[in-house]
Amino acid sequence: MRITRSIIPNLFTLANLFSGFSAIIAISEGDLNKAGMFIVLAGLFDVLDGTMARLTKSTSELGVELDSLCDAVSFGVAPSFLLYKTILFTLGPIGILIASLSALAGVYRLARFNVQLAGFEDKLFFTGMPIPSGALTLVSYGLFIAPSGIIPTEALIPVTSIIIMIVALAMISTVKFDNLPRPTLGSLKERPIMFVLAMIAFAVSVYSKGEYLFYVMALYISWGLIRGLIMLIGNRVNVDQERDTLEDPDDHPFDI
Question: How far is CA 169 from CA 22, 59, 108, 125, 216, in A?
């Protein structure tokens, strides 16, 4: 086996997978706080592997495929298992099906991303919500919102099911979601408003020790869906206008 510099980002990617696996073990043991910590740690490694790949100039198709396989466990299976183990287990097989929807959608989104990948440079937007964002939404809901008592007990299962479905649909949709800017001076110059908003969201999440993370992610999803709806309406208006102006000309426009 020949060791190349690509092993550095790949080790971070595998650390992502190890963190996701550790989260699943923690969930099975009932230690949800540790599970949440491991999923957040997986997200950190997911960011670092891409950063290290750029620094070592070792981006590759192998790295992309490995990253997706690890993401499927850390951000697909682990959050779904957390919500099943804590809330949806009372529904039996139906609960398993509902809880799995986000994992199924996330894996589909990863596969679609890989086959549509045209280059390794950062994009301003993702097609469909990235699976780490979906994981943060579900984990923050399961750790902070569901046990807080904000949602009445009798409504907990329906609300949880609806949130899972919204996250799943957001991931498999073709709606454009913002690629959050990296904490660099270049990102600040390129997208100052998005950079400031992202830093505020990060600060709020850290200050609240994760308790407000779900609301931050809800705003992220809502903004993507609202913008997608506005673009859809705008495209339909443009199509209707084109239809109005592209009709065949009338050779005798003044004949009744």
Answer: 27, 30, 11, 17, 18
The three-point CA angle 66-216-102 to 5° equals 45
Where along the chain do its domains lie?
A: 7-239
Please check whether residue 16 is in contact with residue 70, taking contact to mean a CB–CB distance below 8 angstroms.
Answer: yes
d(CA 203, CA 112): 32
CB 142 within 8 A of CB 189: no
Which residue matches tokens 């990617």? 13
How far is residue 138's CA from residue 102's CA, in Å, rounded to a whole number? 9
* pLDDT (tens digit per residue) in 218-244: 999 999 989 888 888 877 656 554 554
What sections of the chain are H helices per DSSP?
A: 7-28, 32-55, 61-71, 78-86, 93-116, 131-140, 156-172, 185-190, 192-207, 213-245
**Single pTM value for the model:** 0.85
The C-alpha torsion from 235 through 236 and 239 to 240, rounded to 10°, is -150
240: amino acid identity, one letter: D
CATH class of 7-239: mainly alpha
